[in-house]
Each structure stands twice: as structure tokens, then as C-alpha cells.
Amino acid sequence: MPELPEVETVARTIQPDILGRVITSAEVRWARTVANPSAEKFREQVKGQKVIRVSRRAKYIVIQLEDYNLLIHLRMSGDLSVRKGKIKAEKHDRLILALRSKNGTESHLAFNDTRKFGRIWLTKQPETVLGKLGPEPLSADFTPQWLYENLRSCKRQLKPLLLDQTFLAGVGNIYADESLHMAKLHPQRSSDSVTKKQAAALCEAIRSVLQEGIRRNGASIDWVYRGGEYQNYFRVYDRAGKPCVVCGTIIQKMTVGQRGTHICPKCQMIERK
């Protein structure tokens, strides 16, 4: 599933080609792609709306229109692309928005989703969808002190907690593994046992790996998301059986919270409270 850097990359990629354009029509090719409102109302309400801004919140792409917000979650296999001129729908296109520029040129924003898990919302109240999300890890609200206090207030394993979008928004499997390795913390470590110094290291690690992921346009590890190169710089993720880049110990793969997890058993020795 695309995580914060991949979603940020998609948002930045489509922005220049859709900003300021007017949506002239919507072709909903699979009704369940539109989570809210109904497909029929979606077509009616989105028509004539001008694209004002493109941004990201957690793993959601947020397209601000004149009267609505278009929220897009790519989930497992979703992808957004802008296609110029007249087009023919591709096999897995679930939604196509026709766009017109000031000079009358035509283009299309296509949501392609092989596995059909992706969802789209059109709403005047984005907080109904985004309101339960935790802070953005690259925002000013995410500080070492905030992380320390909130880790201590929970009693959960570190990795599942970092993946909880209501705790911290945007971090997924790849960047959790990378962050925990950089901070030298075991993914099964109890969050309430983390010291202030360790929380500061984890805060810095999360920021660092996400910023590097964005700089390298995310990670391309399968057929779904392509174009990034961060996979060439992984510390532990998807490197089971290979030497740790820090100490040379062989990277191990384990399961934590039902998720495949990669660690260096030397750099990330578990400490229990």
C-alpha cells in the first residue's frame, strides 16, 4: 500500500496538470469506488467544480474544489494519472474526471485500481473522513515531547502503534521498519518503556526516513507503484538475509501485529520494562 512519501509524490505529480482546471464530467466506472455520496450524486455535484488546491493528509490525496473536497485513498493498488486529450478508458479505470483548462484544452484525471480497494469521497466536511487521524509526522505538532508523552500513555508494541493511523498519520509498514531501525528500537518494545531520549531518536528517525522517501519519490517495490527509487536505500525493509548497513549482522524477518517486519537483531535488541 502506498504510504506517506508515495502519496505525497502522486499529489505533487498530478497538481501541475489539474490545478485551475474545471471538471466538465465524471465517468464512474465502478460505483463502489465512490464511498460518498452515491455515484449519481457524485456525477452531479462534481460537474463544473474548479480545482483550487492539491494536497495530502496522511495517506489521502486531498483535492480542494470550489465547493467540495475530493478525498482519494489509493489503498492497495490505486493510482492517479493525468491523460491529455481524448482518451479511451483502460481496463482497471474506476473513475475518470474530464477536465478543461482556461484555453479550452481537454485532459482527464483517471483513477485506476486493479484490486478495487481504493475509495473516493466528495464532501463539504472533510473532517468527517479525516477527523480521527493522528498528527502529521512532518508537521510542527509532531515533536519529541509529544511522541514521548503519547508513547508513555499507551501500553502497546511500538510497530503496531506506529501503524495506527489514529495515533500517527501516514506511516506504514516500510517506513515503520526503517524508522525503528534508525532509532535502534525493537518493533515489539512496549511503548510505555521508551525513554525520553529514545522518543527523541524515534521522532527524528521518522521525520528523516519520510523526508528521504519523498526526496526519492517513494519506494517502488511491486507492480502497483512505480517511479520511486527509495527501495534502493532501504536499511532493513525487504532485506532479510542481507547484512545490516550499520553493523553487518544478518537482517531477520518476523511477524509483528500480523505484519511482516524486518529487524537487525543486534542494532534493535529488545528491552522489556
Summarize the entry for a quick read:
This protein is α+β, with helices and mostly antiparallel strands and 273 residues long.
Q: Care to describe what's here?
A:
The structure is a single chain. The protein has helices spanning 4-18, 39-46, 127-130, 144-152, 158-163, 173-182, 196-215; strands spanning 22-28, 34-36, 51-57, 60-65, 69-73, 78-84, 93-100, 106-113, 119-123, 252-256, 259-263. The protein has 273 residues and is an alpha+beta fold. It has two domains: 4-130, Alpha-Beta Barrel (N-terminal domain of MutM-like DNA repair proteins); 144-263, Helicase, Ruva Protein, domain 3 (Orthogonal Bundle). A five-stranded mixed sheet has the order 2-9-5-4-3. Strands 1-7-8-6 form a four-stranded antiparallel sheet. Strand 4 and strand 5 (69-73) form a beta hairpin. Helix 1 runs parallel beside helix 7. The longest helix has 20 residues, at 196-215. The radius of gyration is 20 Å and the shape is elongated. The model has no long low-confidence stretch (mean pLDDT 95).
Topology (SSEs and partners):
Blueprint: H1 4-18, E1 22-28, E2 34-36, H2 39-46, E3 51-57, E4 60-65, E5 69-73, E6 78-84, E7 93-100, E8 106-113, E9 119-123, H3 127-130, H4 144-152, H5 158-163, H6 173-182, H7 196-215, E10 252-256, E11 259-263
Parallel strand pairs: 2-9
Antiparallel strand pairs: 1-7, 3-4, 4-5, 5-9, 6-8, 7-8, 10-11
Helix pairs in contact: 1-7, 4-7, 6-7
